[in-house]
Amino acid sequence: MQLTREWPPGYGGVERMVHAVAEGWQELGAASVSVSLRGPAKHVDEDPLPVAYERHRVVTWAWGDLLLPLPCRSLVQLLWSSDPLLVHLPCPTVLLLAVLARLLRPRRRIAALWHAFLDADGSRWTGTLLVIYQRMALAWIRRGPKPVISTSEPLCKELGETGVRAEVLALLPCCLEPRSEAMATAAWEKRLQAGLSPSRHGRVIFIGRLESYKRVDWLMEACRQVGIGQLDVVGEGSQRRRLEWLADQQTTGGGDPPAIRFHGRLQESDKFALLAQADLLVLPSASCHEAFGIVQLEAMACGVPALSFDRQRSGMAWVNNLREGSTVPPRRWEDLGAAIQTVLNPDGYASRCEGCRQRFNRVFSRTVWRQRLQKLDL
């Protein structure tokens, strides 16, 4: 069983990871059930990826962002089951239910997958609550679950520095769904045939939710400053109208701004077709919630370099690993434009494309991921 906040597979990294683990267990001959605190999003008509495993929802009452579990059949089955349980953190309610499951079934095998460290960058009140929760969560994983899994080497290192024993730590990076990996490989072969060179004025792509913490406005400004020819924005969210307004303001403000196209949410095949034409994927968020970025894998599998901020306690810059190509990932938003220019420099661009595809095959391919999952003591 897996316990998570959001309904898988969804479009977020945690939900996609839940989906991958469920599929991986089934490929290894084990039945899988996912339990979430929320049901499917109302605006989504169908799953973005096919699902063949059981999914259940614990009924909850929302108090702001906090979800309080209510008595229901799924909750009873979750807590009283003796099946091995993998809990996905951070989430206060998931932590609470994991502790209750341990108290009710002391011999039950429970593992934890730690997706991200959270920083107290909100209001003083919420920031204090966040610090208290994270300390409680880290105290629990130091004593309770085994193994303690995370998605990148930097996060594993940070967990070790908080006191998690090295012998229980395990690395399981995210991966792509088989159909997505196949489409990305086809895109890579097309890019190879066309020749690995950047467009004359540069074509940058962003894929993700259009929310304030994603900082697409930073990317728009950086592209304007360095003269990028086209910026493709893929995704939906509450900030879309504001971003479209900002794009219009750039056009009327003089200079030579990039041509910005808002595509909304795309089908997987259309997304990979757009990725295959891009020169660079940029994820400009500096939020503490950003710890991996599965879309980076989609780009890298297509042979498209990915760029993100090098944030402490995050695995984003570890995933794309542009340091191997002598590129310094930006730490401040003011440095974003210079980093984009460096990656798109024709000298060395082809080697960067080949390097990111090789890194995907070596570290993140489905074959390597399945071997890692099989070695875990779950």
Beta-strand percent range? 15-25%
CATH class of the largest domain reads Alpha Beta
Overall geometry comes to globular
CATH topology of the largest domain: Rossmann fold
How much helix, percentage-wise, in residues?
A: 40-55%
The largest pleated sheet is described as: 7 strands, parallel
Distance between the termini: 10 Å
Protein model, in words:
- With 378 residues, the protein is an alpha/beta fold.
- The protein has two domains: 2-172, Glycogen Phosphorylase B (Rossmann fold); 178-363, Rossmann fold.
- The chain is 43% helix and 15% strand.
- The protein has 14 helices and 14 strands.
- The strands form three sheets. Strands 3-2-1-6-7-8-9 form a seven-stranded parallel sheet, sandwiched between helices. Strands 12-11-10-13-14 form a five-stranded parallel sheet, sandwiched between helices. Strands 4-5 form a two-stranded antiparallel ribbon.
- α6 runs parallel beside α9 and α13 (349-364) packs parallel to α14 (366-375).
- The longest helix is centred in the middle third of the chain and has 20 residues, at 124-143.
- The protein is globular and about 65 Å long.
- The mean pLDDT is 91.
